[in-house]
Amino acid sequence: MKTMSCKQLGGACEQSFQAKTFEELVEQSKLHAMEMFMQQDEGHLEVMQNIQALMKDPEATKAWYDAKEQAFNALAED
């Protein structure tokens, strides 16, 4: 298992996610993002706007995703 925070994934808080794979971690992060959206958390909403803008460029999106996955892969096991 490895642990990353919302902030390490580009988010707005220190909520931690634990997973065996990066894909599992992404799913947990998405659920967290939905919760924060429902709560209209200002910090998370700002990050979501930035990510939506990034997603308009597929190459930039892939580079961002790949960088986060590399950071996850570089982490030591918990």
UniProtKB/TrEMBL annotation:
Record-linked Pfam families: DUF1059
Protein name, as recorded: DUF1059 domain-containing protein
The species this protein was found in: Psychromonas arctica
